[in-house]
Amino acid sequence: MKLDRGRWAFADQRRAEIDAYFAERQRAQPAIWNGRVLMIGRYALSNGVLGGRWFETDYASMLAWKAWEAWEAWKTSDATWGAAWGAPDATVRNGFALGALRSSDGAFLLGVMGAHTANAGMIYFPAGTPDPGDVVGDRVDLAGSVLRELEEETGIAAADVDIAPGWHVVDAGPPRLALIQLLQAREDAAALRERILRHLAAEAEPELADIRIVRCEADLDPMMPDFVTIFLRRHWRTDR
User: Sign (positive/negative) of CA torsion 148, 150, 156, 161?
Assistant: First the structure.
């Protein structure tokens, strides 16, 4: 999909409120910072083909837009804060790419997000919101984004996995659109986990706090977001 160079009206029109919200988040989680990210607009999925346009914005605007359901947890002394904010822009999605890392013995490996991250304690596949560094020409390189995040988070390089063709799209409803690519490793789950844990131990501030091995429904955890469990259940139903 292509990159749209236009501006996002929500980010421009609600700048003061967005900045105030992000300041609240930073007070609670000082490690988060306001970098540049990509979001997807005019999203449509038809006959197995995903359409839309990516656009650039700042992380603070994306966080504020995503947090419309959680104002009670972050409200300021202004009692009208949440009421004035309103619903999010329904024409866009927080689109992000994930690498579903599968071991040679059929298990999936997911990371537990570190306490210093914006999603502390959540359990994901290696993932990231695309940023301007993922733009090649006028297109967004999601496959490159997945492999970059995989190596940064786990130490597993592109040469260590076979990339399955195609993508799995999970629309968990506004605001999230998960774009998942299956990555087949050549090591079993125990060996992969130990390898990743060694990588994390060598990092000064690793993004992940732990690695979970998931083989079946009994291994699912409430800290796994719905787009992860939807993908896993769908996979287990069809991979028989």
Answer: negative
Q: For 112-145, write each residue's pLDDT tens digit.
A: 999 888 788 999 999 988 999 999 988 899 999 9
Give the DSSP letter of residue 192: H
The candidate with the shortest Cα–Cα distance to 89, out of 176, 184, 10, 194, is 10
DSSP 193-219: HHHHHHHHHHSSS-SEEEEEEE-SGGG
Domain with 84 in it? 2-238
Q: How many domains does the chain have?
A: 1
CB atoms within 10 A of CB 48: 8
CATH number at residue 212: 3.90.79.10
Model-level pTM? 0.83
